[in-house]
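Sequence of SDR family oxidoreductase (Frankia nepalensis).
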Amino acid sequence: MDVAGKVAVVTGSGNGIGVAIAKRLAAAGARVVVTDIEADSVERVAKEIGTVGLAADLTTEAGVKAVATLARDAYGRIDIWHSNAGIAGPPPPDSLQDDAQWNTMWQLHVMAHLYAAREVLPEMVARGDGYLLQTASSVALATQPLKADYSVTKHAALALSEWLAVRYRPYGVKISCFCPGAMLTRMLLDNGFPDDHPAIRAALTPEQVAEVVLRGLADERFLILTDPEDARALVDKGTDYDAWIGRFGQPLR
Ligand SMILES: NC(=O)c1ccc[n+]([C@@H]2O[C@H](COP(=O)([O-])OP(=O)(O)OC[C@H]3O[C@@H](n4cnc5c(N)ncnc54)[C@H](O)[C@@H]3O)[C@@H](O)[C@H]2O)c1
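Predicted 3D structure, token representation.
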């Protein structure tokens, strides 16, 4: 899709890659709507871009609807909805224990994407055009051995994107799932890794990530990756699932 002149909602655009993607879309001529749960961040980023924004909790359908209403009031339509907000959650051993954390991740990583699809698909199908872009993670292709809640909900996000693509691409709606690897945002940096940690050395800056996303939107590819090698996990699982599981080896601490 050529994003120039399009109206794009980017969730989680108060921080991290959401900010960089919102700014990159605006630089490419899109009219961007900023939204995040953090009101101060929304205000700052919307001001920097020179656009509208709304603080909203996207784990609720009311929050998603409020953002859609703002976008339509400000710009008349929604062409691109990028469901991007996410959380990493606390470190283990909580990932099998904490129902509240599972519920929050389920709501934010899956239901927020579903609420957005429910909200904007009718107008996109009617126009035979539009774009749903959903951020999952490379974890959705492989696994995150330390965090069951994050890993499972990101798998579910990919499954939802895949279903939407199968069902709605024939109506002209573009659907992509963005499955990035490590990126230099607070989500990664809050882990306290040293600078020479492999995850930090491999991580892309938010600006590099925004370029990847803009290229993905232009290509309209279903799977958008920061590292093409991440798709190998799908091949390896399909070839020999037990060998793939066996690679993880020793108990993790
Ligand atoms: N950073 C990484 O290494 C990495 C890797 C793979 C995938 N991701 C995914 O990328 C996306 C963006 O993450 P990031 O790295 O920019 O992290 P980030 O923490 O910088 O940004 C995430 C944003 O989501 C917002 N948010 C959290 N809960 C919300 C809610 N209930 N309603 C609305 N907004 C909410 C936060 O306030 C924050 O601004 C996430 O979905 C994350 O899971 C990140």
